[in-house]
Amino acid sequence: MSTAILNKIYIYPEKDAPCKELEVCEALAESGLTGDRRRSRRRSVTLLSSEVWADTIAGLGIDLSPVTRRANLLVSGVDLQAAVGRRLQVGEVVLKVWGETEPCQKMDDKFQGLQQALAPEMRGGVCAEVEQQGRFRVGDEILLVEPA
């Protein structure tokens, strides 16, 4: 089994504005990632698999940055679909994974067919809530934490 790793951290200070890429970030239980725009508590952090993203855009024959998906955390070595209903520890932070981040029309605005390509098997990633606040950094290992 390969090690699961946090590859990138992105925050989006304003809706539809460009992202900011960070090396270290603080996650707060009430508000999500420091500097990120406010979202619902269960969607305070979004995760995207780098492997699934690469496979999806390769299937479309295009080269798009994962920033296109507007997820907060780009991860590798994690089956995000299997993580739904479970907890992931990233650095000091524990995230409760709630469900799919459903791809919207904005994906087709970036590339026609991207929304449909991301729809099966939660290819567009998942959303999570910060259960234990703290800091994480690019390169941190991601661990599956069994439910209490």
**Overall tally of domains:** 1
Strand order of the largest sheet: 2-1-6-5-9-8-7-11
- The helix-strand sequence is EEEEEHEHEEHHEEE
Reported by name, the CATH topology is: M1 Pyruvate Kinase, Domain 3
Could you name the CATH homologous superfamily? PK beta-barrel domain-like
The share of residues in extended strands comes to 35-45%
Report the top-level CATH class: Mainly Beta
Shape: globular
Query: What is the CATH architecture assignment?
Result: Beta Barrel
Extract low-pLDDT stretches: none
Structure commentary:
The chain has 148 residues and is α+β, with helices and mostly antiparallel strands. The chain has a single domain, classed as M1 Pyruvate Kinase, Domain 3 (Beta Barrel). The protein is 18% helix and 36% strand. It is built from four helices and eleven strands; from the N terminus they run βββββαβαββααβββ. The strands form two sheets. An eight-stranded mixed β-sheet has the order 2-1-6-5-9-8-7-11. Strands 4-3-10 form a three-stranded antiparallel β-sheet, with no helix packed on it. The mean pLDDT is 93.
Kindly summarize this structure in a few lines.
The protein is of the alpha+beta class and 148 residues long.
How are the elements arranged and paired?
Blueprint: E1 5-11, E2 20-22, E3 24-28, E4 32-33, E5 45-49, H1 50-60, E6 73-76, H2 80-83, E7 87-90, E8 93-100, H3 105-110, H4 114-118, E9 126-132, E10 134-137, E11 142-145
Parallel strand pairs: 5-6
Antiparallel strand pairs: 1-2, 1-6, 3-4, 3-10, 5-9, 7-8, 7-11, 8-9
